[in-house]
Write a structure and sequence with these properties.
Order of helices and strands: HHHHHHHHHHHHHH
CATH class of the domain at 137-307: Mainly Alpha
Number of helices: 14
CATH architecture of the domain at 137-307: Orthogonal Bundle
Distance between the termini: 32 Å
Shape: globular
Helix content: 55-70%
Strand content: under 5%
Radius of gyration: 19 Å
CATH topology of the domain at 137-307: Hypothetical protein af1432
């Protein structure tokens, strides 16, 4: 099978270890900043904290899914040997969102019904579930998986409202917190020698965006994925990087997911006036904002139904 590899990829870093800018003041408190800088230095210098790599089969699946010209035949060939992904594609095609007149029984028919774009997103999700949302903290990872899937769907929906390219919107949303997952694994299995667990929240908040950016680079994911991982909490660009529209879309999608109870910790946090202002600043009018909130409710039902 011949596959055209997408050209818009994040360039891999020069080193296998994290190269994180230690000069950036991530906190107003000098003491807090010193803690973060010290942990950054530990992570950068310790080879055991290299970003993990995906298995070759998973990397190949991402490459196929990421090909803008991928064919139905190519998707069938990559998905059919995987019964879990095949079952998920069939379940979605026969689900309430599509409600076909006749039950879909073949993978090819399901792909033709759903469209290549959606099936690519299902493949992305299956790879992530098999190789990323896995680990000792099963309950935590399960919540993060539901959160990531919801943010992925909502990023794709918001991108459509805004007339943005939706090719990698779902993947970017799905993996927006990949830095949190990888950093969690690092701190659980081989933390820096000076790491103090009491600094957990501070370290996670300050580092997960940068770590996610590095992981996306190591996995040679599309540039959009790396940008969202890095900027979904810092889309304003107060520093040297400038405004990130993709980061803004991700931040909005994340708040919509939290609004319907699909936050990282599973809690429900209603939209505030500040959140509504963030949605309007994206360029959405009142009708589009109402549609986005309604879509979040539909996504919540869909995500929970599929588990």
């Amino acid at each position: 099978m011949s596959v055209n590899v997408p050209q818009r990829r994040a360039a891999p870093p020069d080193s296998n270890t994290f190269e994180i800018d230690e000069e950036e003041a991530t906190r107003s408190s000098i003491y807090d900043r010193d803690i973060v800088v010290h942990v950054k230095a530990q992570i950068r210098s310790a080879t055991q904290h290299s970003a993990p790599m995906l298995p070759e089969s998973a990397q190949r699946s991402l490459t196929v899914a990421g090909d803008p010209e991928v064919s139905i035949r190519a998707l069938v060939e990559i998905i059919e040997p995987d019964p879990v992904t095949t079952a998920r594609v069939l379940a979605i095609s026969n689900g309430p969102l599509y409600a076909p007149a006749k039950r879909i029984a073949s993978l090819k028919s399901a792909i033709m019904l759903l469209g290549v774009g959606l099936v690519r997103d299902v493949l992305y999700q299956s790879v992530a579930e098999a190789h990323i949302f896995r680990g000792a903290s099963a309950k935590v990872l399960a919540r993060q998986r539901l959160h990531g899937v919801a943010v992925g769907y909502l990023m794709r929906s918001l991108s459509g409202h805004l007339g943005l390219n939706r090719d990698y919107a779902f993947l970017a949303g799905l993996l927006h917190d990949i830095g949190t997952i990888v950093l969690q694994q690092m701190l659980d299995t081989s933390p820096p020698v000076t790491y103090d667990p009491s600094h957990y929240d501070l370290v996670m908040e300050s580092l997960h965006g940068e770590v996610g950016h590095i992981v996306a680079q190591r996995w040679e994911l599309p540039l959009a994925v790396a940008e969202v991982a890095n900027r979904h909490h810092d889309f304003e660009g107060d520093g040297r990087d400038g405004y990130s529209q993709l980061g803004h879309v991700a931040a909005a999608a994340e708040r919509l997911a939290e609004h319907v109870g699909l936050s990282e910790d599973g809690s429900r946090r209603a939209l505030t006036s500040e959140d509504m202002f963030m949605l309007y600043r994206l360029g959405l009018d009142e009708m589009a904002v109402d549609a986005a909130i309604h879509e979040a409710e539909r996504v919540e039902e869909h995500v929970r139904a599929l588990g």
